[in-house]
Amino acid sequence: MKLPTRRAFLATGATGLGGVAAGAAASALLLDDGSPATPAADRVTSLGTASVAAPFPHQAGISVPAQQQGHGTVAAFDLVPGASPAQLKALMQAWTAAIADLTAGRAPAGDPDTTALGSGPCSLTITVGFGPSLFGKAGLDAARRPPQLAPLPVFGTEKLDPARGDGDLGVVLAADDALVVFHALRTLTRAAAGTAKPRWVMSGFSRAPGSSPDPDATGRNLMGQLDGTNNPAPAQPDFASKVYVAPDDATAWMRGGSYLVFRRIRMLLTSWDAQTTAEQERVIGRRKDTGAPLSGGTEHTPVNLAGQNPDGSLAIRGDAHIRLAAAAGNGGAAMLRRGLSYDDGLTADGEPDAGLLFLAWQADPGHGFIPVQQRLTRNMDALNRFTTHETSALFAMVPAAPPGGYLGQGLLGA
After folding, report:
1. Which of 78, 111, 177, 227 is flagged as catalytic?
2. What does the alpha-carbon distance between residue 234 and residue 311 come to, in Å, rounded to a whole number?
């Protein structure tokens, strides 16, 4: 049987939610094993055909609703020695074109990879940015690096592996299907050959779309805690100012972009599991089952940091994570936190090598991640006893490509 190409699969209209029938027909071809036919409508759901629109001038993938995309990968690339300005520009042009095809569910022209054959867009997003180390290379004047992209300071509790951090280029890929994510990264890697090579790759997962009766419910991390309760929401009037670089920012090429802090945080799950539920709740400052603050109410009740227990002690103790991370105690610092859980088996000493791929999007790390992390470190956040920061990276995630243009054009020139 001759299999359809991914481009042919989607040419009949499966690039959006209305293409379910076309996607189902292709699935029926790909899954035919000689068994009695199953109605095409029973073989595919809207998960495969869904796509995510880019909210220009921002790249897609930053403010994606929390219930979307069950799989994600974060990767960094380094330029090869001697890479020229022309090569870097050509790479950004090639990536921009490939991303347009991949996120629409089309196979890029000349792509021989059949990994995602028969798949639709699957809500794929690919977000691209530049690291501090890119400047001074490929003809980029180091003076054009914005102050917000200065390397992150050292935090006292981290144990970083330099080989698995930083990078000249950063890419975040996410989709409802792991094969689609894998194929997309391989496509970008092939396009980069001769100009940039992978530095590190880390993959994770979150709650699968459709797995919860409430698609808007806050997801949980591997500690069993609700994670992301107080995230800024796109409907809030100050969302854009917290997450995206302002339209009048001094660094013109970053207007509409966002700064991404990435951390790989290993959770010391054996030690965590040895704690009682009550102690785990005191460490975080929230109930484990409902996510409600220990000061009372429901998950989204504002935290009362002055609230007391009947014996007069603080309901949310002094070293509780939510007390130290609260915007009120950090000069209003805020960021959009996105997390992917990861499970990489066991460490050399037999402990779980699992935890959180932490992504924090913000207009300025100096008013987002940095002051919060400094306070968590300085004040001995109780959660520090159960986590280890192993990887760190910072990227300037550029605005969306202008019509007919390419990602990073404002920096690299027309």
Report:
1. 227
2. 40
Roughly what angle, to the nearest 10 degrees, separates helices 85-103 and 178-192? Answer: 160
- Provide the H-helix boundaries in 32-145: 46-49, 85-103
Whose structure tokens read 């080989």?
163
Sign of CA dihedral 278, 283, 284, 286: positive
Alpha-carbon distance of 234 to 228, in angstroms, equals: 14
Position 67 scores a pLDDT of: 60
Query: With left for phi above 0 and alpha for psi between -120 and 50, is residue 312 left, alpha or beta?
Result: left
Q: How far apart, in Å, do the first and last CA atoms of the chain sit?
A: 46
26 contacts 9 by C-beta, under 8 angstroms = yes
Q: Is 42 a catalytic residue?
A: no
Q: How confident is the model at residue 209 (pLDDT cuts 50, 70, 90)?
A: confident
pLDDT in tens, 341-381: 999 999 999 999 999 999 999 999 999 999 999 999 999 99
Strands 336-346 and 352-362: antiparallel
The sign of the CA dihedral 189, 192, 195, 200 is negative
Q: Where are the domains of the chain?
A: 6-49+66-217+406-412
Q: Does the pLDDT of residue 2 top 80, yes or no?
A: no
Of the chain, the percentage scoring pLDDT greater than 70 comes to: 88
Of 292, 358, 361, 371, which is closest to residue 324 (Cα–Cα)? Answer: 371
